[in-house]
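Q: Now give one record:
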Amino acid sequence: MDREVGEGNMFGAAPHERPVPRISIHAFCELPETGEALKKASEDRRLSKAQLTVQSGGINGAVEHFRGQVTPNLLVVETQLSGKDALAELDKLAEVCDPSTKVVVVGQHNDVELYRELMRRGASEYLVAPLNPLHVIEVVSGLYCEPGAAPIGRVVSFVAARGGAGSSTLAHNVGWCIAEGLDISTTIVDFDLPFGTAALNFNEEGGQGVADALLSPERLDDVLLDRLVTKRGDRLSLFTAPASLERDIDTAIEAYETVIDVVRATTPCVIVDVPHIWTPWVRATLVGSDEIVIVATPELASLRNTKNLIDLLKTARPNDAPPRLVLNQVGQPKRPEIPTKDFAETIGVEPSVVVPFDPALFGAASNNGQMLIELQPKSPSADGVRRLAEMVTGRSVPVAAKQDLPIISMLMGKKRA
């Protein structure tokens, strides 16, 4: 699968956003605040695979602890000394530290000369207290991102606050818009194995792609992935669900993680269509995403579920922005609705996009296997899709591209005819 996304238009997760591999981290602190900052960092999704142990004692504590023992992958040590005294402590640590262990030193002094000398003696990084948990995460991620390593994609997960909210439809439309309007290579992953609609919404034949990958995740690589996905144009790939009730697929959380990891290693943007169920793998997929979009409708059950989701995700992702909220099907005739302002005040998140109730447009798009922008590029719903695509990518659809989208629609229509 080609990672080129247009001249000068590369996209994906930043180096510090890479998940840290399964490593052991041991920290020896002198100040309680430093230990607390490291513990908060360990709760971040990017460090979920790492094992972090925090205890007191500083550099001398580390020396005593590891005398005669194997040191971890990463050692974080704190010192309140400066200059030659700090260097003398570090020399003692070097006597018990394995050559493969990376060392991060936390100090109290913003001393350039000390920093240079520490780097010369083999330290991986020098941080000045007080520590910011997010900065710690960035440093650790950077240490395990090899120079010249291939970029990885940014994962955006869509989930509905209730069944029928339209999360899948919007996920597919946003993915299409990112590929066609922003020229960013995108893969849509449909994890709704029994009832997925990605193939239907794009008028494509369904397949066993995602199911086969989840059943044998150890076999999945970029070559096999290329055979399992459905290509739709130059920049969009569909990893479709079988939409069949004949197979019972019960796999571990790690299988879903592996599928996402392989896909994001080959595609700059990954749109994950998460079904409206609650299982350990759904929770892990949402928590591990770079961005989350919750699609809700303006009614009481949807409000309750949205609040529960946002509260849980804020707690589980303390260093991330809250999920984005999309209010869909707003303005349905004769249905009592919770006003947008009241909905936002209750959950504490303003809607990123409000999509009006438009059954004719959504129904036609679904029946024809087309996208909203293809059918009515100037409609409020199509505009909402464009704005959401811009928000989750941080890019703007060029004016020329917006003008060209109706032409794309006509060409696709002729192709289907």
About this structure: The longest strand covers residues 154-160. The chain has a mean pLDDT of 90. The radius of gyration is 24 Å.
